[in-house]
DNA sequence: CCTAGCAAGTTCCGAAACAGCACTATAAGC
DNA sequence: GCTTATAGTGCTGTTTCGGAACTTGCTAGG
């Protein structure tokens, strides 16, 4: 089964995953909720390749989760702002964060 | 950046995604929470290939989210049971489900 | 004994996605 | 007219994925 076919699945969890079911998309949204909005900021914060970032931003805009907003006319520049639909993903990010904090402690030497 | 490198990220959301940040893993957990436990059940329910399913189950066991439980000795057979750690992902699934129900209605002809 | 069936995987190959890096486009500043 | 800043694209090799067949270990039937 293809990823895209999930979007018509009977299960709302599956449909949700059809939009944000890869490792990078939720990281972009995390950054958005932290106040980031620009391509270069996302690229640096998440460490993903620019190629993937561009693709995921496009998908998120198509899904109505972000809007591509021109913030500069002179050299045409765009940043990405959460829609209300996107902001309502905050609770989901919170529950994932809480689970991670509880069950996936950092395995660095500094923590022990 | 590689997927696996996320597991040491400072951000708990990123660490969580290092475990369940692909399209299929959360579907397996959804099925577990619905009471499924066997390989063939997961394969049929989610529609993923057996190859990927086997890989994801292995990862989930390694992550301590599922346990591989022998339920038959005669022909060695195993099923997969949620640990407490895994059950605590239920709230996360709920929030994703709620968001999907609200923002991603099924696009079938029957809905219009 | 021989074959079929069930369940949990494993193997193989072509297709798609990804990582890494360089490159483009447009304009501002020196 | 050269450098810097920003938002992407192109290119190339590697990794992962999708689909279907095959394996293993046992049971049931003829």
UniProtKB/TrEMBL annotation, chains A, B:
GO terms for molecular function: DNA binding. InterPro entries: HTH_HxlR (IPR002577), WH-like_DNA-bd_sf (IPR036388), WH_DNA-bd_sf (IPR036390). Keywords: DNA-binding, Transcription, Transcription regulation. Residues 11-108 form the HTH hxlR-type domain. It holds the Pfam family HxlR. It comes from the Bacteria. This is HTH hxlR-type domain-containing protein.
